[in-house]
Amino acid sequence: MFYWVVKAILKPILHLVFRPWTEGAKNVPDEGPVILAGNHLSFADHFFGPLQLPRKVISLGKAEYFTGRGIKGLLVRAFFTGVGTVPVDRSGGKASEAALRTGLRVLGEGEILGIYPEGTRSPDGRLYKGKTGVARLALESRAPVIPWAMVNTFEMMPPGRLLPRLGIRPGVKFGKPLDFSRYYGMEEDRLVLRAVTDEIMYALMELSGQEYVDKYATSAKVEMARAARQAAAGGS
């Protein structure tokens, strides 16, 4: 219920201020389980990604978003609850399996699951290598996978920026459903999982127009931070 209240309040405000646009929303079925596999450019994706769909989009978010204390913790928890986020432990190992099971439960209930295969926001607006959890979800649930491309949200609100820039129109594109039925029953095969994930990321690259980087975004962030430290040390 809270999700719909937040959406009813935010949607007209965001439309008035930012004039977001959408392409391909009809590719999303009116009912039944769906995986929306998206690029992740900005914090603003949480607002504009699900905005144009009449159905609720549920995403998986860090459990830390729901455990903060004080007024700030309350506001953060209320925000992520309001945008349809389900808390999961994403620390790896058994936690990753728990996240997978949570995603399968959402799909088993006939809902839309929004997932960002890159695992984190892009540090520079490029598209990075996808993690194979999205492939396992697709093959185990047998739900259709729809590429979900955010456009201009990086320019509007890049990492580290607290407020979005005005004058930049964010967009969302929904691609045609991807068919992975030829791989059903092969969800334990690592090569198959990699192939399915790469196909999803290729579709996202074509839909978004982003440059693709064949490395994980988390690794790229570590390298960028190291380079920044070295540059700072060299200039001191």
UniProtKB/TrEMBL annotation:
Q: Which UniProt keywords apply?
A: Acyltransferase, Transferase
Q: Output the Pfam families linked to this UniProt entry.
A: Acyltransferase
Q: What would be an example GO MF term here?
A: 1-acylglycerol-3-phosphate O-acyltransferase activity
A GO BP annotation: phosphatidic acid biosynthetic process
Give GO cellular component annotations, separated by semicolons.
plasma membrane
Q: Where is the Phospholipid/glycerol acyltransferase domain?
A: 34-153
Q: Answer whether the UniProt record assigns the keyword Heme to this protein.
A: no
Which SUPFAM superfamilies does the UniProt entry name for this protein? Glycerol-3-phosphate (1)-acyltransferase
This protein is called 1-acyl-sn-glycerol-3-phosphate acyltransferase
**What is the source species?**
Sinosporangium album
